[in-house]
Write a structure and sequence with these properties.
The chain is built from 7 helices and no strands. By secondary structure, it is mainly α. Among the domains are: about 80 residues, Up-down Bundle (Four Helix Bundle (Hemerythrin (Met), subunit A)), CATH 1.20.120; about 40 residues. Helix 1 runs antiparallel to helix 2 and helix 2 runs antiparallel to helix 3.
């Protein structure tokens, strides 16, 4: 019962802050609400007893991606002029996309509704995982990242991509030099 109440609180926090992200006209406030939404997702990982994923969510998305977005907003604000329209002119296309997503969600929910009589057994029970699996999961993940038979190539490609993005961000943010300066 307590877990359900905590889940509802986290769900309301996450969905509410996600709605603030997409409806707020202030870009900086929307980025702050995005951080709260990421925090709610980390809370879901904690409820699922996935501590590593919760920590990764906190470090990567809140600690890195959100801060990068806020820096980008703060750095590009002074470069932007008020020549463009402050409102989104593609609201019709967004409405069509939102309607399509809603139709897909309704189709999936109607396809599985009503639940079969034995579904309550699956919804109320948890699959027990042995302590050995939980204790070695991060170690096995680390081994899989560096194993030539597993994920070393995608891991290295992602690191090269992130390095390229970092170098590109520095080049874009670097102030232009005046002619004659060395």
């Amino acid at each position: 019962m307590v877990e359900q109440i905590i889940f509802i609180i986290i769900a309301v926090l996450t969905i509410g802050s996600a709605l603030v992200v997409v409806t707020n006209r202030n870009l900086f406030h929307a980025a702050l609400a995005l951080m709260v939404s990421f925090l709610g997702v980390a809370g879901f990982y904690v409820l699922l007893e996935a501590g590593f994923l919760a920590a990764a969510q906190l470090l990567v998305y809140i600690g890195a991606i959100s801060i990068l977005i806020i820096f980008a907003i703060m750095m590009t604000r002074r470069m932007m002029q008020t020549t463009e329209a402050p409102y989104n002119t593609q609201w019709g296309l967004g409405l069509i996309a939102a309607g399509l997503v809603l139709a897909i969600l309704v189709f999936v929910v109607v396809g599985y509704w009503p639940l079969p009589p034995d579904a309550s057994v699956y919804l109320q029970t948890r699959t027990q995982v042995s302590d050995a699996v939980i204790q070695n999961s991060v170690v096995e993940l680390g081994k899989a990242f560096v194993s030539p038979d597993a994920y070393v190539l995608p891991f290295e490609l992602a690191s090269i991509l992130l390095l390229g993005a970092l170098v590109g961000a520095i080049v874009v943010a670097w102030p232009p030099q005046e002619e004659g300066e060395a």
